[in-house]
Structures are given as structure tokens and as C-alpha cells.
């Protein structure tokens, strides 16, 4: 279980609180939908939880392990367990889906080895296994530039898994996708939580969050307004959106 205690994020020389007073427990297998108005801090929340942005204050623990103590970006040894996927995943457009999965976020030496094609057989098989699970086996040797938006999202998910992620933060993964592609991406994420006990936190439109997520967080002006599980939002809760 991940525990967040008094997470705070401020920016600027005249500090503005972007996130303030977050106290939550995050369980294995949770699929959390984050909803809130534009500018409420959704993307910053994901980046902080995925150890991409520094915390101004607060504590972050995984079981008995301390990841962040009093602020900062988190201990380096934990970072491979946390993935952050942007709206438009950054892939190498002239490399195949398979090579994008293999290159991923490896260490500098391993990354160079993979970029020039020196790949261990177990790396290769692991990447192919993930692509197959997400219906991308026929796209393994297709250049990323020729993949659809939904396919790029799934390649990015495969890349995160191959490189050890157990926690995946996804920022608006369905923006710009048709309904079929959006549902495919969200089904993939939901299956990760159900079958592999991964933890997924995604910024989503409310209708998708209510349909696919086991838990909903409402964020307003940097604060957690509500945290609900197993039901749709009430009219009172929706007033913050």
C-alpha cells in the first residue's frame, strides 16, 4: 500500500499552492479516476505521485519503505516502479513499436545497447509478451509514426511494464481518440489492475472515470474534495467539476 501524508506542492517565488494537504492510501489493484476543472492541479498531482515532480512537503511510503520524507522528488531506487504517461506518449517515431518498448526508460548503458540493437533474448521475449497481451503483436515491427493514438498509448503502457512499473499515472489518455480506441486503452488499464494488481491513476472525463475506475478522486483548487468507491457521483459532488 502507498501512503501519502500531507503532500504539498508550491510554485513561484511568491509561493502558490498547487497541491495542498493530500492524505490518502492507495492500494494494489486500485484504478483511480481523477476528475476536476481545468487548472485544478490534476497533471501536477499525477507528476508528483509518479515521482516526476518534487514535493514541497509531505511523506510518501510504500509498505514500510520511505520514498519521500518531508518533500523532494523521491529516492532514485524506487523510480523505475513509477511510470508517468503524458497525453501524447513520447515515442521514437522512426523506430518500431517493439524497439520503443525495449528502449524505454532504461539506464544509460542499457539504453545505448538497446538503441543499437544489442538486445538480450529475455528482453525481447518480455517485450513481445506484453505487446501480445495488449493486442499489438501485429504492430511489433511497425514504426511508431504509423501507429494510431490508441496504439501509441498501449505501446507506452507496455514500455512501462517491461521496465518494472507497478504504479502507472496516465494524463488524459483518451484525449483525441475515437470511442473505440478510448475504450480499448481504458480496458487495457483496467485489466492491468484486475489481473496483475497494478495501480493506475488516470485523469479522465467523468463518464469514462465512472465506467472504468474502481475509485474516484475529485480535485478542486489543489485539494482532494472527495474520494469515493463503487458508485457514481452525487449531484452535490459534481458541483466541483
TrEMBL record:
Residues 2-241 form the ABC transporter domain. PROSITE patterns: ABC_TRANSPORTER_1, ABC_TRANSPORTER_2. InterPro entries: AAA+_ATPase, ABC_transporter-like_ATP-bd, ABC_transporter-like_CS, MetN_ABC_transporter-like, P-loop_NTPase. GO terms for molecular function: ATP binding. Coiled coil: none annotated. The keyword ATP-binding applies. Keywords: ATP-binding, Cell membrane, Membrane, Nucleotide-binding, Translocase, Transport. The keyword Cell membrane applies. This is Phosphonate transport system ATP-binding protein. It comes from Paenibacillus shirakamiensis.
Amino acid at each position: 500500500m502507498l501512503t501519502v501524508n500531507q503532500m504539498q506542492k508550491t510554485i513561484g517565488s511568491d509561493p502558490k499552492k498547487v497541491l495542498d494537504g493530500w492524505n490518502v492510501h492507495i492500494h494494489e489493484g486500485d484504478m483511480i479516476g481523477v476528475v476536476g476543472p481545468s487548472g485544478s492541479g490534476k497533471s501536477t498531482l499525477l507528476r508528483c505521485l509518479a515521482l516526476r515532480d518534487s514535493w514541497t512537503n509531505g511523506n510518501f511510503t510504500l509498505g514500510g519503505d520511505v520514498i519521500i520524507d518531508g518533500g523532494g522528488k523521491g529516492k532514485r531506487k524506487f523510480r523505475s516502479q513509477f511510470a508517468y504517461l503524458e497525453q501524447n506518449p513520447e515515442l521514437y517515431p522512426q523506430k518500431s513499436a517493439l524497439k520503443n518498448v525495449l528502449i524505454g526508460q532504461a539506464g544509460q548503458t542499457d539504453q545505448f545497447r538497446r538503441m543499437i540493437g544489442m538486445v538480450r533474448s529475455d528482453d525481447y521475449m518480455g517485450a513481445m509478451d506484453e505487446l501480445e497481451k495488449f493486442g499489438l503483436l501485429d504492430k511489433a515491427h511497425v514504426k511508431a509514426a504509423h501507429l494510431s493514438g490508441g496504439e501509441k498509448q498501449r505501446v507506452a503502457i507496455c514500455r512501462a511494464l517491461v521496465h518494472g512499473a507497478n504504479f502507472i499515472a496516465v494524463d488524459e489518455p483518451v484525449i483525441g481518440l475515437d470511442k473505440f480506441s478510448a475504450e480499448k486503452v481504458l480496458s487495457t488499464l483496467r485489466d492491468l489492475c484486475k489481473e496483475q494488481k497494478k495501480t493506475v491513476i488516470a485523469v479522465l472525463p467523468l463518464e469514462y472515470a465512472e465506467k472504468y475506475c474502481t475509485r474516484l478522486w475529485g480535485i478542486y483548487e489543489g485539494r482532494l474534495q472527495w474520494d469515493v468507491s463503487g458508485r457514481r457521483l452525487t449531484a452535490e459532488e459534481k458541483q466541483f467539476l
